[in-house]
Design a protein that fits this description.
The protein has about 475 residues and is mainly alpha-helical. About 60% of the residues lie in helices and about 5% in strands. The protein contains 20 helices and 4 strands. It has a two-stranded antiparallel ribbon with strand order 1-2. A two-stranded antiparallel sheet has the order 3-4.
């Protein structure tokens, strides 16, 4: 068992206890971040005169070599080590002897793991933001193409009023746009460096925490060493944001599943994103949408797990916090996979415009506009509401839509109806006269699409420095 502590102990740790305590099986995931942090730390120690220039250069060179060997597969991260920090430091000591032992000067594994997790999470936030942006671009493409594709809008899963496919997709655009805003917010709030916090009370060495923070692209150092090693708020915020992303994807999945059903036939999912049945040859199942809907629960579970872990932990660092990693890693990977697959599914999906329009007509989605017609001709709204209710009942009995009735039939219900009623209740009129910003009318919709294009042309990440290339070069 390779570990970097033991002077206080008189006997070996029990093998089962050691394995239970070890984290190398999952924290090896941020081997790169551990070495990035170590390089920044050593450079600062050299700048401060705590290490000589020769020692600094020797350690930095060896760390870069170790990183290269891990990445090209010539050096394996062995599970004989307790954690990734032990692996890196022990490997360094094997190569440099006493000089390697100076790497850990002025830091603790507590601030080291806090740094590694922040660096790793920060990169994940950027990747997730990129996938969200790609998905928004896919949705915007659908919106541009379908500003005149009429479909029923729903409340209570009942057909309510006519909208367009562009308008319906626009609602999801707003959801995922807010998800991106949460990524930016999380990034900016978490972007402070805990390195230099020590175990909990800082260090007696003359560290320049601003220097290490700047080297790694942080906005500055954390300002309380106890909070620096024990803060996991940024992970809870991220898991909450990831849960919200999955909730949005799950809602969208539910609609895709409904739209893909034989009863609706609004869409056809591409063969690449569908599967068949082992027994029923006619089946084409929306498995990707169903799996995304199902995987939402595991991301929720990660959030609840970390909230539960953190709820009773006193300051500062406690070993419980080791439980922040595995489920967070899984949640990150799950969300990234779901976003990538969903983007591909939507980009290749076929929309049956005629079927959508027919569904809107047959669902009396123009009933509200028929009532408005009567109101505009002097009928009190409450009376108009009752008249249209009778009209809908009459249509149901005859098996027709409102615009399929003759003027004579309409005037039997109310003499106020005139021949202009047919234009007033056409789907095109019902949608196009809704021109306020945010409504489905084509003029309003095109305004919104233009605003979305402006939004996607900007990128909040453009101001983030490319610190990693310089640090590792």
């Amino acid at each position: 068992m390779a570990q970097l502590w033991g002077g206080r102990f008189t006997k070996e740790t029990d093998e089962l206890v050691y394995r239970f305590n070890a984290s190398i099986s999952f924290d090896k995931k941020f081997y790169r971040q551990d070495m990035e942090g170590s390089i920044a730390h050593v450079k600062m120690l050299g700048k401060q005169g705590i290490l000589t220039e020769a020692e600094t250069q020797e350690i930095v060179t060896a760390l870069r070599e170790i990183l290269k060997e891990v990445e090209d597969g010539t050096l394996e991260i062995s599970h004989e080590y307790e954690d990734i920090h032990s692996f890196v430091e022990a490997t360094l000591i094997d190569r440099l002897g006493d000089t390697g032992k100076k790497l850990h000067t002025g830091r603790s594994r507590n601030d080291q793991v806090a740094l590694d997790m922040r660096l790793y999470t920060r990169q994940e936030v950027l990747e997730i933001d990129g996938l969200l942006k790609e998905f928004l671009q896919v949705m915007l493409g659908v919106m541009e193409e379908h500003v005149d594709t009429f479909m029923p809008g729903f409340t209570h899963l009942q057909k309510a009023q006519p909208v367009t496919l562009a308008h319906h997709f626009g609602a999801y655009f707003e959801m995922f746009k807010r998800d991106r805003q949460r990524m930016e917010d999380i990034y900016r709030r978490m972007n402070y460096c805990p390195l230099g916090s020590g175990a909990l009370a800082g260090t007696t060495y003359d560290l320049d925490r601003y220097s290490t923070a700047a080297q790694m692209g942080f906005d500055g150092p954390t300002l309380n060493s106890m909070d620096g090693v024990s803060d996991r708020d940024y992970l809870i915020e991220l898991l909450s944001a990831l849960s919200t992303i999955m909730m949005h994807l799950s809602r969208f999945s539910e609609e895709v599943i409904i739209w893909n059903s034989n009863e609706y036939q609004f869409v056809e999912i591409d063969d690449a994103y569908s599967t068949g049945s082992s027994i029923m040859p006619q089946k084409k199942n929306p498995d990707i949408a169903e799996l995304v809907r199902g995987k939402t629960g595991r991301v929720y579970g990660a959030l609840m797990s970390l909230l539960t872990t953190m709820k009773g932990i006193p300051l500062a660092y406690n070993k419980d916090m080791q439980e922040d990693k595995e489920l967070t890693f899984d949640a990150m990977d799950t969300v990234k996979g779901c976003l990538a697959l969903f983007s591909g599914m939507v980009a290749t999906m076929k929309f049956h415009k005629g079927r959508m329009e027919a569904s809107a007509k047959n669902g009396f989605t123009n009933a509200t506009d028929a009532a408005d017609y009567l109101v505009n001709h002097g009928v009190p709204f409450r009376d108009a509401h009752g008249i249209i209710g009778k009209l809908v009942l009459h249509c149901i009995e005859k098996g027709v839509s409102i615009d399929e009735l003759s003027l004579e039939d309409l005037q039997k219900i109310s003499p106020v109806f005139d021949k202009d009623i047919f234009d007033a209740v056409s789907l095109e009129t019902c949608v196009e006269k809704r021109l306020t910003i945010g409504a489905p009318g084509q003029k309003a919709m095109k305004q919104v699409i233009a605003l979305h294009k402006e939004y996607l042309a900007q990128d909040w990440k453009s101001g983030i420095s490319d610190w990693e290339a310089g640090l590792l070069s």
